[in-house]
Amino acid sequence: MDFKTLPEGRFTLRDVTVPACLVGQPGHLVRTDIGIDGGLIAAPGGTDVAMGGAMVLPCFTDMHTHLDKGHIWPRASNPDGTFAGALSTVREDHANWTPDDVRARMDFSLRCAYAHGTKAIRTHLDAANGQFRRSWPVFAEMRDEWAGKIDLQASSLAACDTFTPDGDFAELADTVATHKGTLGLVTYPVDGLADILRQFFDMAAKRGLNVDFHVDETMDASSETLRTIAEVVMETGFDAPVVVGHCCSLSTQDVSRAMDTLDLVAKAGLNVVSLPMCNLYLQDREPHRTPRGRGVTLVHEMKARGIAVSFASDNTRDPFYAYGDLDMLEVLRQATRIAHLDHSDTDWVQSCLATPAASCGFAVPTLSPGAPADLTVFRAREWTELFARPQSDRIVLRGGLAIDRTLPDYAELDDLMRT
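Predicted structure:
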């Protein structure tokens, strides 16, 4: 097929490859036809386009990103590749996070995600040092500007040991509510965590907010805040959606203990998001020592218990992850390799499509007739072909029309990196 000459109007993509789970069939992949009419998926008709088995997916959902941190690496690189190095470097760089700086880097990141075929994004926004007062209004502007191209949500990012039921944290929660966001918290072992969580859930419930946690982002097996979150959710009856991200320490815990915790997570109805690229970069890093652990959480065991498991980009070219481009195909490809998703369930592709969309409350992507023809087309006919190459020649259709996939030039950000 010629990737540059898709017609407009009514047409049919003849002989495409799609994941069987997206069309309600068993197995891995099936060949089918997809009709497009008036920007929507429709019954086949109109002009035929021979696709030669090219793979088609709905556009992606990226449910855990950090658009406010993105692309600061040139001025704020991680000195040693560690989590502690990332944290201290970002805190120092907050001084540069003016509204104009945040806006420019967010827009750069969103253009990358859009070009790669992402339709919905949740970003976390740093709250420390009063940054939430500057970043949330910028996010609101970007959400309006990108409406119709990328659906945007935001979650606040604050440390659990800074939580108070009043003061700055209450102002943060009010800001989140004003901007129709999600209330977020980073959890790690601190005294009185269960009580902190009770008050946190109460704060969210009173404002009608969903919640999103960074959880146990460490290989220290003694870090069990995921377990505490599940217990407090069941104790309080908090019934809004709860997302938990990272959960790395599960991979180093005693198996029986970890499985018991996962049983609690399933009962509590938590939604998990794994960030395989960032965790591979940060976790188990020590100078002059080869890492032993991958950092990925127990995604197979979670999925087997009916827990909603997604994958997402996380950080992009900042001290927490030096690489990345908000390309969800790269995320899925790396997750497949890191977490051995191959030789496994046949529907893992939903971890970047329907599962994160449902976890966050975005519109669930589908190939059903009547759905928006927001699709990504790859020159690949099977999973090994899809994952073997970066698929830089993919086509992205929005409303049935091919978009301009030109990526922004890093040089656009040069002036911002001169501090």
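Summary: The chain has a mean pLDDT of 96.
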